[in-house]
Predict the structure.
Amino acid sequence: MNDQNIITFLKLRNFIFQISNSNELLELTNNTMISLYCGFDLTADSLHIGHLLPLMVLKHFQMLGHKPIVLIGGATSLIGDPSFKSLERKLNTYNDISKWEKNISNQISLFLDFNIGFNSAKIVNNNSWFNKINILSFLRDIGKHFSVTQMINKDSVKNRINRIGQGMSFTEFSYSLLQAYDFFILNQKYQVCLQIGGSDQWGNISSGINLIRRINRNQVFGLTVPLLTQSNGVKFGKTEQGPIWLDPKKTSPYTFYQFWVNIDDKNVYPFLKWFTFFDYSKLMKMENEGCHVENICKDKIILAKEITNIVHGEKGLKSAVRITSCLFSNCLSEMTELDFEQLKQDGIPSVNLLGTEDLQTALIVSSLSYSKSQSRNMIISNAISINAKKISDVKYCFSNHDKIFGKYTLLQRGKKKYSLLCWK
């Protein structure tokens, strides 16, 4: 048994937003290796960075000897959790959810070990019990333990139904019962005594705690982690460009890496506590030395490397670092064809071109310029580069020599504005 208590560890790194019966859970985890779970609904074919915190918490539990169970919401995904959502979720189909399950399970396996004995991680799908359930039995045996008054007064519900012209369907309203029943089943079947989730899950988690207390007569616990939010309050899972996905086909390793390199300075040290496995003493030393801008920039890169390596592995990290270095140093010779494919996917703006184009036209097509006269002025002022080489000829036309791997040309305006020309 590990001497370090998991609850103390999580508190030290500021993982805990809310926790039920903290002293009792602390005592339990001092003396027993517990089973815990976290649920993930299948709302897309990939997880995004908003899911990273609960995954890291599951990993820390496992590293300290506890058994993590991941619940895939094959059934609850058909409804969608309404917690703190301003509008009703789009209902997904059985076919979509079935296709997405494999992708999500593979991503979860990046964080958890499924072959280490007692505390090997386990993935279960709640469709395995909900597809056998009788609606009358569920309402009679489970529904009777829920007070509609209490459910309506939960913040996640109240905030929604008080919005003029919106309200909430019975379908969404029933979600809390379904998640509570998940906890109830896992407590019965796997002796799960702790559910973790984002801070928006507290109402659903407490419903499960109450249901288990009423029927199983067991004490169980709930723990929520903070939601990753930006300064404008929007979840970190969403950006102006959309979510930062864990799937490299949806968000390339390069773009994933760049996201962390470019986070707000104030988030660097909280994120290092959450998204790395560094010793706490090392983290404190880094934070104490982080009063200088150069140290903050260095530590951002360390953070980006650590979390990119966890999600995309050594190969993905090397590619992201290589692309970053080559663009920064204006030396493209080390970039591979796959590196350029990442840039085309989502790394920098790209345009497809047919046949021969002159430089002035390409600047307009790529939105680096708005007119021929502006293009000429930028070329004359030495502001334009092709594949990191300055071009001063206003009549310049592209040749095969400019097409890296026969199909890519990196067009650059100034130091930071790029466009990737993709030749067909």
In short: DSSP finds 18 helices and eleven strands in the chain. The first strand starts at residue 18 and ends at 19.
